[in-house]
Write a structure and sequence with these properties.
The chain is mainly β. It starts with a strand and ends with a strand.
Length: about 100
């Protein structure tokens, strides 16, 4: 749902933004002190599915939908939710999820 601020800007809550994410809306890559993985793809979490042990996290990164399979413990610890900005980290054939610094 979108509302207008007193300055006229349109404000959209995170879950609504996740539903309407468009390819042109890519967060700027964050600068980290150091990482071994070189393939870092910023995007927005659009879906989180959890069961007792495992979880599936979907990230919309431009026109690309990326899906990561993680432990439920990792998803709960990071408190991943639709609408959050996140960085998909690709190393070999695995896709991990990181949160950018505030």
């Amino acid at each position: 749902m979108a509302v207008r601020s007193s300055g006229g800007q349109r404000l959209i809550d995170g879950p609504s933004l996740a539903r309407v994410a468009k390819p042109a809306r890519r967060p700027k890559p964050e600068v980290f002190k150091g990482q071994s993985a070189r393939n870092r793809i910023p995007g927005i979490i659009t879906r989180v599915i959890k069961d007792r042990v495992a979880a599936q996290v979907e990230i919309q990164a431009g026109p690309h939908r990326l899906v990561s399979l993680l432990t439920r413990e990792a998803v709960d610890e990071l408190d991943l939710k639709p609408g959050m900005p996140a960085v998909a980290v690709v190393k070999a054939t695995n896709l991990g999820v990181e949160l950018p610094r505030d």
